[in-house]
Design brief:
Elements (H helix, E strand, L loop, with lengths): L6 E6 L5 H10 L4 E5 L10 H4 L9 E4 L3 E4 L1 H12 L14 H27 L7 H23 L10 H10 L2 H4 L8 H10 L3 H10 L23
Parallel strand pairs: 1-2
Antiparallel strand pairs: 1-3, 3-4
Helix pairs in contact: 1-3, 1-6, 1-9, 4-5, 4-6, 5-8
Length: 234
């Protein structure tokens, strides 16, 4: 595996960039970690972070002096293509579970996260649960979680018998995001068991402590509730 000591992960704390740290730890990839705290009043990324990339959102990586890349799926594909050529954390198109791998790698941010974001904003705006748009997003989330539950009833990992980058992708909506927008996984016992399994991975433990030291992520059925001072910390 090629090494890249010039790789920098710009991690916005309490954000989906935690997945990039975990991916690099799983790959054993050398990297520099630069962490940024959210604004204590608005919870937005600080100006220094937003200036890193034209989109202004997490995650952002830099690789050497020529590459600055944002967008979670793009960052994952870049790192896997360049630094995991043997496919340690991916499945080839010839693998029978390749459709599962590629679907969950992209559906997490393409389907689950947009639904969660809309539901969070609806909750912040105190919109009734029976608002048509809210019902649509809740239905999409429910169908995604049901599909995930069925998949994890068959396999130990989201793409099958093997741990892949698609599992890293699931981290944020199932854990960190539930600090901001608590929701229950009580109806999904296989997802809860899955969180217990991945929570024991050494690379995940190391990555989370590096990125957000002491943060209590919900890894069970219930989501954490942020108090008046912000998300819960140890």
């Amino acid at each position: 595996m090629a090494e890249s000591p010039e790789l920098i992960i710009h991690h916005l704390r309490l954000s989906q960039s935690d997945r990039v740290i975990w991916l690099c730890e799983e790959l054993g990839l050398p990297y520099q970690l630069q962490c940024y705290d959210r604004d204590p009043v608005t919870s937005f990324a600080p100006a220094a972070y937003r200036a890193l990339h034209p989109v202004g959102t997490a995650p952002v990586i830099q690789d050497g002096s020529t590459v600055t890349l944002g967008e979670t799926n793009a960052v994952f594909e870049y790192l896997l293509a360049k630094y995991d050529p043997q496919g340690q954390l991916s499945l080839p198109p010839t693998h029978p579970n390749y459709p599962d791998y590629v679907f969950w790698l992209h559906h997490t941010n393409g389907g689950i996260q947009p639904a969660l974001n809309d539901l969070m904003f609806a909750r912040m705006a105190a919109l009734p649960a029976d608002t048509p748009a809210t019902q649509v997003m809740q239905g999409r989330l429910d169908r995604s979680l049901a599909a995930m539950e069925a998949q994890l009833a068959r396999y130990p990992f989201i793409a099958g018998e093997t741990f892949t980058a698609a599992d890293c992708m699931l981290l944020f909506p199932l854990t960190t995001f539930r600090i901001f927008m608590p929701y229950s996984l009580e109806a999904y016992p296989h997802i809860v068991s899955y969180l217990g399994r991945i929570g024991e991975r050494r690379a995940l433990v190391v990555a989370m402590e590096k990125g957000d030291p002491g943060l209590k992520r919900p890894m069970g059925a219930e989501g954490a509730v942020a108090d008046e001072e912000g998300p819960q910390k140890a």
